[in-house]
Amino acid sequence: MNKTRLQTLKKKRKWLLMTKLVSIFYLLAISFIYLTSGSATEAHYNFVTSDSFEFQAGTWWDGSHLVFLEDEEEENVVKGCEAVKVKIPVQNDSEYGMMGSTEYEVHQTNHKNDAQIVTSGTIPALDAKEKEVITFTADKPGNYQVKVYQREGYEDNYETRTETWSKTIKVVCEEDDELKPDESTPEEKGQPGSADENQTDTEEKESTDSDRSSNEQASDDTEEVSQEEEQSQDTDMSEENKATEDETEGPSETEDDESENVEETETQSSEEQNPDEDEDSRDSTK
Amino acid sequence: MEKRANKKRKKPNFMIWLNRVFTVVFYTVLTLALFFVTISKASGGEPEIFGYQLKTVQSGSMEQEFQTGSIIAVKPGGDMTRFEKGDVITFVAEDQKLITHRVVEVVESGGKTLYRTKGDNNNAADLNPVRSENVVAVYAGFTIPYLGYFVDFAKSQNGAFLLLIPGILLLCYAGFTIWRALSELDKSKKRLDQASEAPQSES
């Protein structure tokens, strides 16, 4: 009995010892977990590695591709005798946004193919598929074209800036529209006006109504310069023209042909009298 | 006989002493734990021990000063513009992480103090200088290696599960001893019964 009691006592002690040990372990563990916990507890250590390498700095193509949103088939004709606002939509037709702005220029081309910059501006950086409308005021009738510079390095061309031109935009007077059929038959253009006008019309088939008005102005100017006698002659001639035209005015234009031919010869004779005047008028149409 | 008895007594004496030591340790740890927990809960904020915070080290950028997986003590508070070149400071980085690095340069700019910092084990200084407002503590020079690994492990799910094992074993052991004690009691009872029954049958 004594032995068994001793054994149980020993076991009890062992058990107590184990319990205490485990309890201390738990206490310490929980204490440390608690002490190292918190809102932003763990100290984090970063490791910075630096390396040196070379790369060529400069500009590179951002992948943008600017296009004019215009109908291929349809002609761009804007009617208006006074200053007209022309709007040309442009789109960045690519999957990439532009990394910067680019420039555009509006050119006016006349019949001698001399391009003249009317205005220029910048297109802001457009996102992929974003559109922008270029607006400019066309104060003179004529042919206009917009030139857009693609971004630097467009399609890996770093030497020069790639240009994209819009279709020609024709700005015409509305009155001119009515007279358009006359262009094919220049003889019929004998509208009431000075004799010089007729001449210029026959020379330049593509002259517009604005040209005509400028001709009139030019002829007016020359009239002021030229002698009064010539002026009176000139005006007489034009009055005669008017009179004949009034007489021959009828429903069909073909009937007027003969009488108009007569008029032309008469006007030509009057031009011979003052050649300077004629030259002036030609200059003004250029 | 007496000598034998003494020898026999010595063993239990050692066990008794060990038991006592464990008891003292247990109560000390328990008291301290309760004390610190109560104090830090009452004061609010992060848990502190004698004004120091304990941090586990996650990476080796400051190795040799303190190792990865160790626990370090840092002292928070005070004038954050007081640090000089050579001090090891704990600061909040841009991504709200705490970083402990050594000050390599103190920059005074526009009435503000900026610290250029570098990990001892890094070959370059940190990219961004640290503003004094972002400094939270200074390294106190006290570190316990490897304890951080244990704490981090204990915090994880698997760790927490493994931590339960000693407790479960203890319970099992307790159950086992109780069962054995009960079975021994049964045995002795049966013996007594048998002893009492035997003379009756004889008669």
Automatic annotation (TrEMBL), chain A:
Residues 176-286 are annotated as: Disordered. Transmembrane segments: none annotated. InterPro entries: TasA. Residues 181-190, 205-214 have a biased composition (Basic and acidic residues). Signal peptide: none annotated. Residues 218-238, 246-266, 273-286 have a biased composition (Acidic residues). GO terms for cellular component: bacterial biofilm matrix. This is YqxM protein. It comes from Salinibacillus kushneri.
TrEMBL record, chain B:
CDD domains: Peptidase_S24_S26. The keyword Transmembrane helix applies. Its EC number is 3.4.21.89. The chain crosses the membrane at residues 21-39, 160-182. It comes from the Bacteria. Its main location: membrane. One of its GO terms (biological process) is signal peptide processing. GO terms for molecular function: serine-type endopeptidase activity; signal peptidase activity. Signal peptide: none annotated. GO terms for cellular component: membrane. InterPro entries: LexA/Signal_pep-like_sf, Peptidase_S26B. It is found in: Membrane. Keywords: Membrane, Transmembrane, Transmembrane helix. PANTHER family: SIGNAL PEPTIDASE COMPLEX CATALYTIC SUBUNIT SEC11 (PTHR10806). NCBIfam families: sigpep_I_arch, SigPepSipWBacil. This is Signal peptidase I.
